[in-house]
Amino acid sequence: MKLDELRAGEYGRITAVGGTGALRRRLLDMGLTPGTGVFVRKVAPFGDPIELNLRGYEFTLRKEDASNITVVKIPAEEGHKGAHRFGRQSEQRQNDAFQPAHGQQPARRQFPWRDRGKKGRPT
Question: Would you kindly state where each structural domain of the chain is located, as residue ranges?
Answer without folding.
Answer: 3-77
